[in-house]
Amino acid sequence: MTTTTFENLETVIARLSLFEKDKLLKKLSKELTGKFIGIEKTPNVMGGSACIRQTRIAVWMLENARRQGVSEADLLLNYPSLTANDLANAWDYVSLNLEEIKNDIAENEQE
After folding, report:
1. Backbone angles phi, psi at 58, to 5 degrees
2. Which residues, in sequence order, are bridge partners of residue 39?
3. Which CA distances in Å does 30 have to 6, 41, 74, 105?
4. Which one of 25, 64, 85, 99 is most buried, by most CB atoms within 10 A?
5. 75 — alpha (psi -120 to 50), left (phi > 0) or beta?
6. Rg (CA), the chain
C-alpha cells in the first residue's frame, strides 16, 4: 500500500463514527485472526463445515438459502435457535471465506 493510499485511508477512518470504527475493528480482527465468534468447525459434525455455535446449522446452508432469496427474517423463523447476531457472524464468515463456502455448497448440491 502506498503512503498516499494509507493517508487516504486514515482520513476516511477519522471520519467514521465510533460505531463504524468498532464495526471495522471487529471485521479486521476476524480477518487477521481467522477467529469468528459464534462459528465453529467440529470434526465429524456436518462434515467439518463451519457451523453456528453448538448447532448443526452450517454456514454454507445459510448462505445457500440467502442466495436463493430467503430473507433473514425467514431464516430466523425457520431456525428458532438462531439469532440476528448469529446471521451477522455467518455473513462475516462467508465474506472472508468465500471459496470454502462456494466449495461446500457445490459439494452438497451434488449429493
Report:
1. -75, 140
2. 52
3. 21, 15, 27, 22
4. 64
5. alpha
6. 17
Q: Which residues contact residue 30 at a Cβ distance below 8 angstroms, ignoring those fewer than 6 apart?
A: 36, 92, 93, 96
Angle between helices 84-96 and 98-110 (to 10 degrees): 100
Give the global pTM: 0.72
Dig out the grid coordinates for 91 from the structure.
455473513
Task: Answer whether 61's CB lies under 8 Å from 51's CB.
Answer: no
The DSSP output letter for 79 is -
Q: Which of the 8 DSSP states describes residue 50?
A: E
**Cβ pair 73, 29 in contact under 8 A:** no
Amino acid at 31: E
* Digit-coded pLDDT (tens) for 46-79: 999 999 999 999 999 999 999 999 999 999 999 9
Q: Taking a C-beta distance cutoff of 8 angstroms, is the pair 40, 54 a contact?
A: yes
Q: Grid coordinates in use for 107?
A: 459439494
